[in-house]
Amino acid sequence: MTDDPIAAIPDATREAIEILLVEDNPADVRLTVEVFKQAKLRNTLHIAEDGETALAMLGDPARARPDLILLDLNLPGIDGREVLEAIKTDPALRSIPVCVLTTSRAEHDILNAYQRHTNCYIVKPVDLNQFITVVQQIQEFWFAVVKLPRLGPG
């Protein structure tokens, strides 16, 4: 018997997890991609480097609907606050969990994100090993503990 709840699920019953990472920092993207590659679950990580691209991806009916969105707040152009607002006011998107993953520790950003209905707010650690640990914990919580809706496209 394994202590790993993800490993305990037979491969045949696991569906691929669709994750949208909205992040403009190439180093954070690379680290997040590596952590998810090492995961013991099938996942597809889609990357949007800015808010405009993220909204276009979310509005594209030909794309897979994300099961989880990891969203940086400080993006060029349309920022993460605007992306969060657009997601949570759109009836077709609002049930997708959004995890704000940002460097901002500002109380007004935290409050604003929750007022816009983020599902969680995580401050990115500066330390490399701590960042890896945070991404692993996000992965474990959202895909081993939480039951996500499987609504399909749109």
Structural description of this entry:
By secondary structure, the chain is of the alpha/beta class. It has one domain: Rossmann fold (3-Layer(aba) Sandwich), CATH 3.40.50. It is built from 5 helices and 5 strands, in the order E-H-E-H-E-H-E-H-E-H. The protein has helices at 26-37, 51-59, 80-89, 107-115, 128-145; strands at residues 17-22, 43-48, 68-71, 98-102, 120-123. Strands 2-1-3-4-5 form a 5-stranded parallel beta sheet, sandwiched between helices. Helix 4 links the parallel strand 4 and strand 5 (120-123). Helix 1 (26-37) crosses helix 5 (128-145) and helix 2 (51-59) packs parallel to helix 3 (80-89). The protein is globular, with a radius of gyration of 15 Å. The model is unreliable at 1-13 (pLDDT under 50).
Q: Care to count the β-strands?
A: 5
CATH topology: Rossmann fold
Averaged pLDDT: 87
- Main sheet strand line-up: 2-1-3-4-5
Q: How would you sum up the major sheet?
A: 5 strands, parallel
Cα separation of the termini: 39 Å
- Supply the helix-strand structural class: alpha/beta
How much is the radius of gyration in Å?
Answer: 15 Å
The helix content, as a percent range, equals 25-40%
CATH superfamily descriptor = Response regulator
Low-confidence stretches: 1-13
In CATH, the architecture is 3-Layer(aba) Sandwich
CATH secondary-structure class:
Alpha Beta
- How would you describe the oligomerization state of the chains in this entry? single chain
List the helices and strands and how they pair.
Layout: E1 17-22, H1 26-37, E2 43-48, H2 51-59, E3 68-71, H3 80-89, E4 98-102, H4 107-115, E5 120-123, H5 128-145
Parallel strand pairs: 1-2, 1-3, 3-4, 4-5
